């Protein structure tokens, strides 16, 4: 019997292996899992550096191989242990989940970060406030309260999560209209109209400094709305675990007469509808 109100969450991480994911690490070929950075152990997706001598700028990302436009991605994470030798001071207990990202296949060989919206994850340092669920914008920019916010990183108003505790966060992504960051059930950041632009990070760290070979292409897309893309987990020098990564697709059949109609879809895709014969 059809249950149009029942939310059908789809696991992106199967708890067993990295099926469905692509790897791209700066300076390495596509799907070269350099020094076993990404691994699955005891049902946990782990990002580790125990086989590294030093980090050496090997920024990496694990990309789910299907793009989405309207969705909620939910994940549970924790920081563990100490930062890898050679990691930047600002990367202590620092990682992220990229949404509306370019694909793994489209990155340049030496590219550090994908063009994307980063749900930045920060762990507490044992003293003072350190928010998580922030936004960073490699190659992108957003609007807040009707005005362009040109800051590369925008702080949320989340609580601070110290130690190695598990934290559950969500990104509610509605095409190129609005994005909400949610941490432990609290909406901690909201922004609108994501688009390509804003340089890459800054005037000092631009497209070419980030290893982007096709900088002219991205610069030609300045102010282009960013309405869909891939989801990627970041490897940024501090070990992190993901216990769950799942998605609720908000785009699908919105015809109540269809067998697969869902009342919570916010974007219609009539090609997905199917009916009784």
UniProtKB/TrEMBL annotation:
Superkingdom of the source species: Bacteria
Gene Ontology MF annotations: hydrolase activity
Pfam families associated with the record: 3keto-disac_hyd (PF06439)
Boundaries of every 3-keto-alpha-glucoside-1,2-lyase/3-keto-2-hydroxy-glucal hydratase domain copy: 8-247
Name of the protein: 3-keto-alpha-glucoside-1,2-lyase/3-keto-2-hydroxy-glucal hydratase domain-containing protein
Organism field: Spirosoma montaniterrae
